[in-house]
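FW: tagging you since you asked about this chain on Friday. Here's the raw sequence from the shared folder, copied in full. Didn't touch anything.
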Amino acid sequence: MRVMVLGASGHLGERLLSTLQSCSDMAVVGTSRSAGMRPRVDLPLIKLDTLDGPALASALNGFDAVVNCVAGNQRAIADGARLLADAAMTAGCPRIIHLSTMSVYGPAEGRMTEDALLDPGLGWYGKAKCEAEAHMAGFAQAGGKVVVLRPGCVFGPGSRLWVARIGRWLRAGRLGDLGIAGDGWSNLVHVDDVCRAISAALRLGLTDTNRVVFNMAAPDSPRWNDYFVDLALALGATPVKRISSRQLQLDASLAGPPLKIAEIAMARLGRKTAALPDAISPGLPYLWAQHIQLDSTRATDVLNLNWTPYRVALQESADWFAGMQLPQQPAGQRYARIEG
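HL: got it, structure written out here
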């Protein structure tokens, strides 16, 4: 089976390349839009802009499946999914594994199965992901095969969003025990569990349907408060501070936007942003209080997943954070350019 991984320079894409590389029945190719983003695996990358439809269709010729791990802004997510569906149909690539998100459920609360209605009302990200899923549904209606994965918060080694920045906030005393403001379910899922789900989805027989959807969150995933305290203890970021709702909201609403603007401005100027404090975006306090819990029973049963235990995932995350270093370019890494 020939498999292309789009967005192979990201946290999930990079880990996925390593997972699929070990499968004897798969020939894997990763793509990246930027030559400056290189995964730490011994596989060549194709330099490919996924918003270039003709180039994407050309690249997909001869592939049996494509995994869409592309992140980024609204255009990269929504328009990219539309262009991918069109390109896969043009190239005769029969299967798409599409990485969506729990954000497609919007502000809903309660236990959520895959049959719940989608709600784009949770900001630009959720809206873009809902649009992307609609394009995937269109590909399935046209005869293609689609497996959609809706992960919660992907953590574990390499997670800069849900391990590294959380760890820095804990050490800086900007995060800790949030009380009722951190009582929402975290819906954490280990990156390796998502990779194993993708591997299973590539082999999944789709005889009765052209499209199937799976929620992805570990069954023992804790509430956010428990995760914050557990990670703080594992990192030695003690004593764990009690953060009031007012303090959290002030940090997110007053400090968050200026820090984000400064980060964007410095990046555009080509300057390093590592010295800037991480911004707590205004949407995060809402997430940490949201009582939504993904039901991952279908993934457990159909994809035969054995979830990484929370305590194991926590320790792996803490160990990675403690030994985190700047990424190094692996020897022999090379790029090929595909022209549209």
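FW: Residues 325-340 have pLDDT under 50 and may be disordered.
HL: agreed, and The first strand starts at residue 2 and ends at 6.
FW: great, closing this out.
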